[in-house]
Amino acid sequence: MSADPGSAVNRRPLRSCGATAALSVALLLSSCTGGVRGAAGSGGVGDPLFPSLGNGGYQVRHYGLDLDYDIKKRHLDATADLTAEATADLRSFQLDLQGLRVTEVQVDGEKAEFSRKGHKLTVRPAEVLRKGAEFRTRVDYDGTPQELKDPDKSTEGWVKTRDGAFVSGEPAGSMTWFPGNNHPRDKATYDFTLTVPKGYTAVANGELRSERTARGRTTFRWHSGRPMASYLATATIGRFEVHTSRTPEGLPLYVAVDPAEAKASKEALEKLPEIVKWQSKLFGPYPFPSAGAIVDDTPKRIEWIALESQTKPVYAGAPDTATVVHEMAHQWFGDSVTPKTWADAWLNESFATYAEWLWEEREGGKTPQEQFDALYDDTTDPKRWAFPPGKPGQAKNVTGTPVYERGAMLLQELRNAVGDKTFFTILREWPTKYRYRNADAQDFIDFCQDRTDVDLEPLFKKWLYEKGKPELTD
Q: Where does this protein have coiled-coil stretches (predicted)?
């Protein structure tokens, strides 16, 4: 993800992929159970930074989202169909949905009772859902979607623009426009049916299956067939210039650009095929059936630069090439391999930042070691050492400077410890082993240790978990 520019030591601005995630007080409180006694699915999955995000008792397998958006009235009429598997006997379960009006809920075709508290929608099926059973939930809802405003004043969710909506979801914004199990560990496939006035384009993840116009409205059907965390979903709407093409290797590209950003975006976006090819050599085969970008002309209140929405990163304005490199690296690190909890966001950002360093070296600029040295010697930005990336401590730190810079510096120290051959093997084999899955810091540490005789425990302890500026060793 890419955010407000941070400190610089003769380098480009720090990028942060989405809103820094402190969210509202409600998201920082312990999860509630919705008041249902007995076999009730919990509200929250025990995330160390966002304890009330996500829900227990089930795993979503597929989302079918049907959204009809009136741009002029800013009104959404929608239906969400969720196919899920019960992981316990459930008398009730919860979904995350912020705002909007729920008009009806059905479970397996029968009306279900429901109630609302905060961003939790508690559903009580007519019959107990048995462990291991697949069940289908339909939620009909409408209203005016609202963005989430974080305590640090950053913005995410369904952000209204002059010609539609800029839709991003890290860490919790997806619940502003559809009900779901809003936590990275619950990944699912998606189908989107997006209806907007004629002349507007609605862009979602995956591949465009059809586009039909009738009675002054156009419906876009998108299919995303690889597992995706909810924070990576988008349904961005606007008057876009759309360009479709294929890379020389045959990968379909779909690029939607607001005309106001087209000229400034041209150079970076033209390098997309080259970037994908280069990263595929470094990180293994590109993990999805298509790629692309969405560049919008957003309100100035969007403080961050970009978010790695799966298959199509969303850019709040024209990106430079380094930002495209960063967000496309996330397709491997964050999108395909997703952290088990938000405490391991460094697994996303360290690799994406390191990819920028490798690209700059490729283009004749600083080497990764020179990037490391410049950051280590810099004394102008104490935030770099404010907390260890593996222990962010507070929700507001999930996209803080150490997650990016100190995380990337850890990778350079790992490279120095194990040597180039082993390091670049790790870069390729890690996203291959955990493709479409979730992983945490211990998974990565064990993975690296299995590939070297060097004892890596002191390195990870120092750079990932210890407070303050790590001391360098010979």
A: none
